Request: fold
Amino acid sequence: MTLPLRLFYLAILQVIITAFITYYLVTNEYRDLSQKNVDALGSFLITQKKQELENYTSIAFSSIEHIYHRFDAQEDVAKSAIAEVLNSMLYNGDDGYFFMYDDKGTNIVHPKEPDRVGKVWWDLEDNSGNKVIQELIKNAKNGGDFFRYNWRQPSKGVSEEKMSYAVYIDRWDWMMGTGVYLNEVNQQLSDIQSEIDRHIHNTKTIILVVALTSIFIIFISGIIVNLNHKKKAEEKISELGQRVIDVQEEENRHISRELHDGIIQILISIKYSIEATSLFLKKQQVEKPVPLTQAEENLGFAIQEVRRISHHMHPQILDELGLSSAIEALVNDFSKQTSINVAVNKPSLRKLLPDFINTTLYRVVQESLTNIRKHAKANNVCIDLSIESKWLTLIIKDDGIGFDIDTQINSTNGIGLRNLAERVEYHMGHFDISSSRKGTITTIKLPTASFVNHFNKSNLNSENNNEQSNG
Amino acid sequence: MNNQMDNNSTPKITVLLVDDHPMVQNGLKACLAYYDDIEIIDAINDGSEALKAAMELKPDVILMDVSMPNLNGIDATEILSEQLPNTKVLIFSMHDSPEFVSSAVQAGASGYVLKDTSSEEVYYAITAVAKGNTHFSGSIAKMLIENPIQPEKNKLTTREQVILSYIAQGFSSKEVAQKLSISFRTVEAHRRNIKSKLRLESFADLVRYAINHGLVEEA
Reply:
C-alpha cells in the first residue's frame, strides 16, 4: 500500500471515529439535558396544577360559604343548595368539576356521574388498587392534600390519571374535592419529549451527512491526488526512460564513431605500414616473410570485425547520408536475408532531420522489419517516407498475417514498440499501429516544426566556410 | 593542363590526399612513394579545407575520404565536380554500402575504393581515374553489377538543396552565386534542375515546397 493511500484510509477512519464520538456525546448530553428539563417542566406543571386546584377549591369553598353559614340548622336544605352550586361550577370544559362525600363515603355531589349520588363508595378502588374515596377523605381530614389515582375522564369516557385536592368541611363531616386529569400534562411532556427526540434525530442526520460528505470529499480528493501523483510519476518515468535511451543512443553513436574513425583508421594505417614494408622488401629483392602475410590477413579480419561492431551500434550512414539512404541500406540487407520484397518511397530532399529524429525513425523501421521477419509471414513490405503540408509521415505496411499488438507492444525484445511509440510522442509526434489478418500498418507523424531549418543550420555553415575560403 | 608534356620525362599524376586521419595518410603515402608516376602534392584533413587546397593546387586526382568534419567527402565531391571539372575525385572510404557508392557517383566521383584494399589497387585506381576511366574496388564492383546504380531522378543533391534553401529565403540567383562563389549561370542551371526534379514551375512553388518540407522557416 502506498503512503498516500494509507493516509487516505487513515483520514476516512478518523472521520468515522469523530462522527461516532460526536454523535454519542451530542445525543447523550442532549438527552440528559432534555430529561432534566422535562422533569423540571413536569414538576413545574404539576405544581401549577396543584396551585390551580387549591385556587379552584378555595373559590368553590367561598361560593358555598354563605350557604354554610346561612342554613345553620337545616342540613338537608344546605346540602341541596351546596349541591346545586357545585354542580354548576364546571371548568376546563367537562373535565373540571367538584365532588363531595361525607365521612362514610356517601356521595353527596357528583356533577358528571349523578348516579353515584346518595350511594356509599367507601371501598371503591381504581384499577391500580387505590382505595380512592378513603384516601381522599383521609387527606381532607389531615387538612387538605393531593392524591393521584385513576378515574374516568368525562370528555373521553375512559379512565385516566387524575390528581385531586380534597378539603374537609368539619361542620358536616364532609369532604369536598376537585381534580385535574393529568393526561394533558403528560401529553405536553411527551410532546416535548418527541420534539427532543426529533432534534436528536436531526442532529444524528446532520452528523451522518457531514461525515458522509467528508468521507466523500476525502475519497474524491484522494482519488484526484492519487491520479495526479500516478500521472506525474508515470510522466517522470517515461521522460526518464526517454533520457536513458537518448544517452544510450548518444553513447552508441559515440563509441561507434570512435571505433570507425579511431580504431579502424589506426588499423588501416598499420595495414599500409605493413604494405610499405612489403614494398620495401620487394625493392630489396627479399622474399616477403610468411608472418607478415599472416599479420596482413589477420589485420583485415580485425578491421572487418570492428566495422561490424561499429555498424551494429550505430549506422554511420544515418549521419553521413541521412535517413532515406540509411533506410535503403537497412532494407537492402533485410531483403537479402529474408527474400521479402520491400519497396521504399522517399522524399526528394535529404538531411532535413536532426540526429534524434533520424535515430528514432531508423529504429522504428528496424524494429518493424524485425517484427515482420519474426511474425508477419509477409511477402511484401512498403515503407513510405514523405513530407507533405508540414507533416513528416513514415508508413510501414506489410501484407502478412498481422499480430496481437498488445503482446507485441509489451514485448521486451529489442527496443520495443512501446518505447518507440513513447519516443515518437516525446518528439511531439504521433505513433499509430494497427494490425489485422491482412497485415500491419505502422504510421508515424511528426510536425515539420520539430526539425524546421535543421538542414540550414548544419549545411549552410560549411558552405559559409567554403565561401570564406573561396573569397 | 597538368597532363601536358614537360621536358622529356613523363609528367607525374598529381594527387591530393583528403582524410581526417594523418596516420592513414602517412601509411598510404609510404606505400604510394614506391610508384614513380604519381606524386602526392598535399594531404588535407577536412572537407572544406580540401576545397580551398584543390582550388589552389588543381590536382589531377583527389583521394577523398567520406566521413570528415565540417564537410563530408561526398558533398565536397559535388562542389569540386562543379568547380573543377578536370580534377577527378576518387572516393577512399570504409563505407561499403551501395547508398554511399551511388551518392558518390551522383556527386561526380570517378571511382570508389575501400580503405581496406591494397595500396597497389589504390595506385591502379588513381592512374585509371586520371586517364578518365572509372574504378571501383572489387567488392564494390561486384555489388554494382548485382544492383546497378539507379540514378534517383527526383532526389536533390546537397548542393541543390543548399541553393533551394537560399532561394526560398528570398535570395536572388545573383546573390546565391556570390554567396557560393560560383557563376550566375551555374546557379541558374541548378535552379532549372531543382524545378525539373521537383516538378515545380514558379518561384512561389519553390518557396512553398521548401516551407512545407521544413527546409526553411515560414517568414
Q: What stands out?
A: Chain B touches chain A through 57 residues (CB under 8 Å). The domain at 158-212 of chain B is CATH 1.10.10.10 (Arc Repressor Mutant, subunit A). The mean pLDDT of chain B is 87. Chain B has two domains: 13-146, 158-212.
